[in-house]
Every structure is written in C-alpha cells, then in structure tokens.
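Re: beginner question about structure tokens

> Can someone show what the tokenized structure looks like for a real chain? I only ever see the sequence side.

Sure, here's an example I had lying around. Input first:
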Amino acid sequence: MAEEVVQEVFLRIWIKRVSLLEIKDFEAYLFIVARNYVFSAIKRTARQKNIEEVWINDSPTFENSADCVILTKEYEEVIRQAIDLLPAQQKQVYLLSKEQELKREEIARLLQISNETVKTHLSRAMRHIRAYSIAKLEIQYFWLLLSILLKD
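And the corresponding structure tokens:
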C-alpha cells in the first residue's frame, strides 16, 4: 500500500508539474499531498475490508455435508453431460488426458495423430465443457440461491 501511495503522489506531482512553480513551500505541499493520499488509502482499505466482511457474513454457507454432496453430484453430472456432447475424437482425447492422465505425446502416439491435433482437441473440449457448465450451473445456482433466500 505504501508503494501505491508513493506512486500516486509522484503521479499527481508529475501531472501538476506546470503549476508547481507557484508553490512557495514545496516540502509542505509534498507532505500534505502524501498525507491526503495515505488517509484516502486507509479509508479505501477499511471500506473494502468492511464490504468483504459483510459479504462473507451474508453469504449462504453449506455447512450441511448433504448439501455439499448434492452440489458436487450435480456439478459432476453437468460435466458428464458436457463430455457426452463432445465430438467422438475430442471426447476420446479429453478422456485419455483427464481420466487416464496420459500426456499429449502419449495420446498422439496412441491415436496416431500429431501433438498439435491433440492440443487443439483438448483446447476445444475444455472450451466446450466450460461454456456448457457455466450455462447449466448458472441456472441451477440461480434457483438454488433463490430458494435459499426465500427460505430466510
């Protein structure tokens, strides 16, 4: 935080360098500018910490392990659905990489394709799974959050 304050002070002085000639006591001016930035930084940090504490305290927690198990199973099911929708070659490359933990070179040798093709298939598969999961889970979490909020 101290480095940020110093950087901000020097930036402000640089921006106002033309008008600095009018200042009679530059040392006092520099002290006041630095002091004001320090106070602003402290206030900003306190506000941010306060916001984080409020958010953490107001966020729903899943202390019940049954809730965690259900959410984990739902997440795994969404991932499985996304994998099932992949084209055959992408699905095969993805499963060899993630479930059998084979390296790209090993997959390329096994499937008799280039390393770049393996890389492309993995990249496309991951992008598809991510997009599918986000779309599905946003809807599920929205309804879950709504039901939790309506319970209280």
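Each token stands for a local structural state, so reading them left to right follows the chain. The mean pLDDT is 81.
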